[in-house]
Design a protein that fits this description.
6-stranded antiparallel β-sheet, alpha+beta, 1 helix, two-stranded antiparallel ribbon
Length: 102
């Protein structure tokens, strides 16, 4: 049961990441560099993970810091679209994220 709860938290955090990333892309050109604070609420509980994005041209890197610990992630920004992946717990938990500027 613990791994199911943990996966749901990771998925919820990634969904929040996508939403915030899309909002950032709309607000500016396609530079998402910076620190982001999230408020995530799911049926399994809530959390406040922090995400740090670093963009270098089309390369996107960053860190996730939340209840489940910390993890680095990588991705890309091309045109108005961004995508990436994060892995935690020695690769046992993973997820992807995408966002598009509208």
């Amino acid at each position: 049961m613990q791994s199911l709860v943990t996966r749901r938290h990771v998925v919820a955090a990634l969904v929040a990441l996508v939403i915030a990333s899309a909002a950032a892309l709309r607000a500016q050109a396609v530079d998402v560099t910076g620190d982001w604070a999230f408020s995530v609420e799911t049926g399994m509980g809530s959390g406040t993970p922090a995400i740090t994005f670093k963009q270098d041209g089309e390369k996107l890197t960053g860190t996730y810091n939340g209840q489940l610990g910390s993890a680095n992630f990588t991705g890309t920004v091309k045109g108005t679209a961004m995508k990436g992946a994060v892995s935690m717990a020695g690769g046992q938990l993973s997820g992807t994220f995408t966002g598009t500027k509208k």
